Amino acid sequence: MDIKRGLILEGGAMRGMFTAGVLDVLMENDIEFDGVIGVSAGATFGCNYITKQIGRTIRYNKKYCRDKRYCSFRSLIKTGDLFGEDFCYNKIPNELDPFDNDAFRKSDVEFYIVTTDIETGEAVYKKYDVDDPECLLWMRASASMPLASRIVEADGRKMLDGGMADSIPVKAFEDMGYNKNVVVLTQPEAYKKEKNKVLPIIRLKYKKFPKLIEVMEKRHIMYNETKAYIKEKEARGELFVIRPEEKLDVGHIEHNADKLEKTYQAGRKVAEKNLDKLKEYLKPQ
User: Fold this and answer.
1) 3-state helix, strand, coil in the chain (%, to 5)
2) pTM of the predicted protein model
3) For residue range 209-224, what is the model confidence (pLDDT) as tens digits?
């Protein structure tokens, strides 16, 4: 059987700084994968793994975390997006801290992003292509948190945060043929997701999208079932998991650069601690 090595990246807004730390260590040690799939922050930050831009994620997040154009309630009120669309998806990647599109084109690594189709309530897995003008919309959709973002329309779909329908797309990547997988989580092992406390507001806000409401009502159940599946496969040695050792002290919205750095360093520490075991796991049999 051919081995396809996959890297699966959970979201979690600014908990993604943990993932950024992990990815930088993987890049520094030339840990290679055939494919990467990211959800929400796992997608927006994980794309830097494809281009090998070590340090880019933590660099621009620390630099602009206090910039109202990047993330602010003013932006939410003014535009409907907590994270500024133009600043995050145009100014930063094209001007202020450029994303290396050429390196992405040259890479043989497949990169997928996950969104939620709010009309069907289903997860959608999109292979990213930097030359497709719609793809940046898919990236934005993947990280568009409900209540804090406008609905994103691309390729005839209405979409929001991929984490609503598939927070940790392990089974989806397995179905794509990836059979030697590494998962980077942004919650510690003991974490269990609770029922969303703002469901009444979500029901009101998205009453035109009953399938989305259904997904949100059972999201905690699906998430905890996926975590149990991951734990079982990890115990059998069929999956390698990198996760925080304790709850990360960082908010979904974080304007404190020191907290971002601390979270990033926590990711580096765990990755370095597990580096030898990871190399052994990925070694061709």
Assistant:
1) 45, 15, 40
2) 0.96
3) 999 999 999 999 999 9
Q: What is the DSSP-derived secondary structure letter of residue 13?
A: G
Closest CA to 228 of 189, 265, 263, 285: 189
What does DSSP say about strands 122-127 and 152-154: parallel, antiparallel, or unpaired? Answer: unpaired
HSE (side-chain half, CA atoms, 13 Å) at 207: 4
Tens of pLDDT along 240-261? 999 999 999 998 889 999 999 9
Average pLDDT over residues 231-244: 97
Going through 40-189 in order, the beta strands assigned E by DSSP cover 110-117, 122-127, 152-154, 157-161, 180-184
Q: Which residues of 142-154 are buried (b: 16+ CB within 10 A; e: fewer)?
A: bbbbbebbebbeb
Strand ranges for 176-269 from DSSP E: 180-184, 240-242
Q: How far apart are CA 153 and CA 160, in angstroms?
A: 9
Residue type, 50: I
Place of tokens 């996959």: 6
Q: For residue 117, how many other CB atoms are within 10 A of its CB?
A: 21
Closest CA to 124 of 136, 110, 139, 109: 139
Residues 6+ apart with CB under 8 A from 242: 22, 182, 183, 184, 185, 270, 271, 274, 278
